[in-house]
Amino acid sequence: MARTRFPADAGLSTRMLVTVFLLGLLYVAFVAVLVALRVPWILVLLIAGGFLLVQYFFSDRIALAAMRGREVGPQQAPELHAIIDRLCALADMPKPRVAVAESDIPNAFATGRNPRAAVVCVTTGIMRRLDEPELEAVLAHELSHVAHRDVAVMTIASFLGILAGFVVRFGLYSGMGGGFRRRSDQDNSGQVILLVVLASALVYALSFLLTRALSRYRELSADRSAAILTGRPSTLAAALVKVSGEMSRIPTRDLRAAEPLNAFFFTPALARGFSLSSLFSTHPDLQRRLDQLARIEAELGRPA
What we know:
Elements: H1 10-36, H2 41-67, E1 69-71, H3 78-91, E2 97-101, E3 108-111, E4 119-123, H4 124-129, H5 132-148, H6 150-157, H7 159-176, H8 189-230, H9 233-247, H10 252-258, H11 276-279, H12 286-299
Parallel strand pairs: 2-4
Antiparallel strand pairs: 1-2, 3-4
Helix pairs in contact: 1-6, 1-8, 2-7, 3-5, 5-8, 5-9, 7-8, 8-9, 8-12, 9-12
């Protein structure tokens, strides 16, 4: 990770390394299956590699565009810049770009491939609902993601899932176009497509579970780092409770529209009722986050 005053997290570094290693092994096995099945995998890799490059180098712009966020200067948002200036000085890290999204969803996120190319974005909804100490605690959480470079790792880790998902869609479209109906001694393309789709679906499921497990840990790590840097775990806990409670007031339509960005958010935007996001969450549950902050509060010598 970058050298800052955010506490080093050996557990996060180890998990990021192990996740990328396991996904690498899965990637090698996946390519071997494609080669064995005589699939034109070079074209697939080129397309998926293009997705990775775009996601890696333009993830900040993509996330901002998705949330309709805009970069703001110190004159446009003096209080927000003042908080981030103070936190960056405290953490001894480069100041990221600052953005605001016109959304009532109370949330914040950080993205970017490295600390110097990062952007921290807050919604108007969270600025309206939190007081300054609570907003500072949330921003410390987001800056921790930047300092630990876990956004870049999550982008790389998601590559295999993108590749497998693309192959699944390609195989299904080929099958619906008649691939599964071809049956001859010379051409077993239907069986090949079926095997590719099944292998790709398995790879996608495994990569999905690995990246979700890493995502949940990185949120706990960011909570811990923010609490230690600011010295006020209870303030971050108060912000978590307030934001989570206010999320239930947001229209379901707006929450569902924001769900694809949950991996970036301070707290997940979950629509009421069943969803894959609630089943395989990018974040640990609220009580687990609050319990961790209470332990840190006790370790710092203050009552929980």
